[in-house]
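Deliverable D4.2, example record:
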Amino acid sequence: MSDTEAGLGPIEIEVIRHALNAAAAEMAVTIWRTSRSMVVRELLDYSTAVFDADGSNLAQSASIPGHLNSMTHALRTVLAEHIPPHSWEEGDVVVFNDPYCGGQHLPDILAFRAVFHEGRRIAFVGTLCHHIDVGGLAAGSYAAKATEIYQEGLRIPPLKLFARGVRNEAIVAMIRLNVRKPDLLMGDLASQVASLEVGQAALHRLARRFGAAAMIEAGARILDMSEAGMRDAFAGMPDGTYEFEDWLDDDGVDLGQPIRLHVQLTIAGDTATVDLSGCSAQVRGPTNATLGTTNAAVMFSLMCCADPSLHMSAGCYRPITFIAPEGLVVNACHPAPVVHRVAIAHRLVNAMMGALHQAIPERIPAAYYGNSYVTTFQTVGPTGQRDVLVEIEIGGSGANPAKDGVNALASGMHNNANIPVEMIEAQLPLTLTRYALRDGSGGEGRFRGGLGLVREWRVDSPAAYFTANMDRFDHAPYGLAGGGPAATGRLVLRRGNEETPIPPKTDNLPLRQGDVVRLETSGGGGFGPPDARDPEAAEADRRQRYV
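Output generated by the structure prediction step:
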């Protein structure tokens, strides 16, 4: 088909749509097969997507919601403010991680490549990976006590790592000099670049078959389809204004000062407006978010309420307006630290779901664990060799109007796997002495919340340092419709026969050989009043949990 003959029918649109999804999935497999660090290869903390020529997400892999719904914001920011569309050439790869240039937090490095057909830009392909370390106060770059972004690690503004296919070795040298595990980071970054090449090749195959004009037309039609599906979802909800709030424990610096996340959701016909003006002002510690993170949480929450057949693309964003004034924890101003922005994202999803429950109570579950339990170990060997482990633990999902929550399920903004015990013990001087479900951690109710986890690490090296950046230790995941809250988290150091609590936001805690760190994560909230539950059925359900 020539470029002047587009006029695509519904079959051609579906062929192209599914081919774009396949391209994003193929990109994801490439990263999985070629990455170096455990946080990418095993934890699967990465995402891939295909965008139209203007930077709107058209297709995505089954990856991390918190990444995918932020990548359009990131790419559009780069195109509008840093590297305009006309300055991209064949072979260019742009990378960056600066939250104040459209990113989320410094460990997340984004990489984009423009795709051309016969000299015309027809698309972009993009990847986002959570890298094991980008410098800063603590190994893993998840410092819990940072008070400005300069303490959080290396900031990379949008720049061309590759220009016309030639790698800029000065940029590579600068990155390597500022991170703790340069070989692992550069290996994962090379994996991202390879993924972009795979995506580009897939789009070239499509363009050779359909032509550039058809690719542009198909992208516009896909966005329109997604918009229509999202409008249908809102039209099926009762008009009204619904409010809900949830709280984070504190920012790790000003201890004991809770952070308010307040959502005001207005449904009007086939549109939705989310007003976050009632959220707390930005805080001194790193529990802040820029708009990329906030956008991801808001959009994800609303897209979850649409028909399962909805095609997820940037077209879904069109009927949604969100208000987030500058200077709040949901739209922090430079130079606020933001590494723990994921706590804001999780808790925004919890608050959004609480508001949505008022509109569509039959479809919304109680709160999931609502937190990333980020643990980092830096071990020190006899010769001074240092290794880094970053783990992100999860908890239980919330019960819903029809059934119990799921135990130990990556929920909400997560879609992570666990790092296998055998992998950790084979590569680092750490032993996992316990990995189990946490009995009694789910909220009570007619339907009980899913259970959280217990995970223990023993230090086998002469010395180590432990960093934690967590929440949900004071404010529990809520239940709905009379259901009870889940258990809060717990973090403990066992040294010999003595146990000592570890603050959930801790930097570089010195550990000795033989020390054991135990983490107990939250479950999910319960749904419905407990007294409505048949005792025999409840006991049967309890036994079934452990089958």
